Amino acid sequence: QYRPGVPSPDAFLGWPLGQRFTPHARIIDYMTTLTETGPDRCRWESYGRTWEDRPLGYLVISSPANLGRLDAIKSSLAALADPEQTSRKDAARLAKETPAVVWFSYNVHGNEASTGEAAMAVAYELVGGTGPEILSLLDSLVVILDPCLNPDGRDRYVSWQMQAVGRQPDPTGSTWEHAEPWPGGRYNHYLFDLNRDWAWLSQPESRGRVGAYRQWHPQVHVDFHEMYPNSSYFFFPAAEPIHVQLPQQVRYWADIYGRGNAEAFDRHAWSYFTAESFDLLYPGYGDSWPSLQGATGMTYEQAGHGLAGRAFERPDGTILTLRERLRHHVGASLATLATTRRHREARLIDFHAFFDDAVNRQPDATLAYILPPVADEGRRQELVELLLAHGIRVERATGELKAPGTRNYDGEPLPASFPAGTYVVPGR
């Protein structure tokens, strides 16, 4: 069921995937090897370096025909995200002929390390697989697979695990291999939580990733995580609260994907839960920020975390292994792709509707936000640069700007005119 020239992770690494943790460099080496042995299905794109100079990038995976027209696909998706240029009729036409883009983000928290292992397995299934299900996915979708969003944190965790674990892992929770020392692998080099930075872009990992993300306009984004080892598996729908600016379609699609994942997990008798613990409120998360960009943004959480090591004994006596953890993430990844393929056209139409509703169907929305010159000009400029990095349009008045009816956030009236140099952020 696999192409003979494409090596499996086991063959490439020299050990069964899940037997130990893989250093970041070897994960990237494997992705590069896939581009060399399966160039008709994938290519590697770089988007930056970490503080510790590790590479950041993603694998683009699709059918040979789709890879040959990626620029046209990007153009079609950009058109769907631009309701001022694309009508609903034109959007319906584009949805019939355009693959959907699914973006998988693994290992934003470095010590949630089964995610990086799962990324290799998913990449192999898509690049090496020959079954009709895989071929159908490749025809219908473009998969963007980022194997590790936080290389510095991952290698901090993996290096410690190599020191702490003997020839065989000890599942007893009180042993050293389950007591990760400070600062742990969760954070990046400067101990910043990258899963709080999607909106603020304070770190180079975030700036590079968001810049790359905006080139593709994905319809689906999944942020793969791990939680404490005594749990099971979480996927969407999300728990309350859900950000008030997100439209109803966000809940609708979360339910569609949740049902698709549930069917896959039920086939394997894997435990899971939904609509608890993980909300969709804060805009800097890897589920809420993509959701605010029109995607179905979701978090998937596997029991494990830095505490679990390679094997962990739970209170009920069951042993949670690294191999089991990564298998669940692989299963959820493939189920998400299958759901997107089944609903590809509808997901693309709703992607356009997200922007069309925001721009053309909000008669009471604020017309514009005004940023007049201030004493601390540096802070104003930083805000403008942040808005531009997110693709938010900002205009600058070259002369006096007359804006009667302007009010501040407290509803108090402001002067009807503003000086040259005032920035204007259109509200719709």
Question: Could you explain how this protein is built, in words?
Answer:
The protein has helices at 9-13, 24-37, 64-67, 70-80, 88-97, 114-128, 132-140, 151-164, 204-216, 248-268, 288-291, 305-308, 322-342, 344-360, 377-389; strands spanning 42-49, 55-61, 100-106, 141-146, 220-227, 233-234, 239-242, 279-280, 296-303, 311-313, 319-321, 368-371, 395-396, 401-402, 417-418, 423-426. It has 428 residues and is of the alpha/beta class. It has a 7-stranded mixed sheet, sandwiched between helices. A 3-stranded antiparallel sheet has the order 12-16-13, with no helix packed on it. The model has no long low-confidence stretch (mean pLDDT 97).
Detail the topology: elements first, then pairings.
Blueprint: H1 9-13, H2 24-37, E1 42-49, E2 55-61, H3 64-67, H4 70-80, H5 88-97, E3 100-106, H6 114-128, H7 132-140, E4 141-146, H8 151-164, H9 204-216, E5 220-227, E6 233-234, E7 239-242, H10 248-268, E8 279-280, H11 288-291, E9 296-303, H12 305-308, E10 311-313, E11 319-321, H13 322-342, H14 344-360, E12 368-371, H15 377-389, E13 395-396, E14 401-402, E15 417-418, E16 423-426
Parallel strand pairs: 3-4, 3-5, 5-9, 7-8
Antiparallel strand pairs: 1-2, 2-4, 6-9, 10-11, 12-16, 13-16, 14-15
The N- to C-terminal Cα distance equals: 50 Å
CATH architecture of the largest domain: 3-Layer(aba) Sandwich
Strand order of the largest sheet: 1-2-4-3-5-9-6
CATH topology of the largest domain: Aminopeptidase
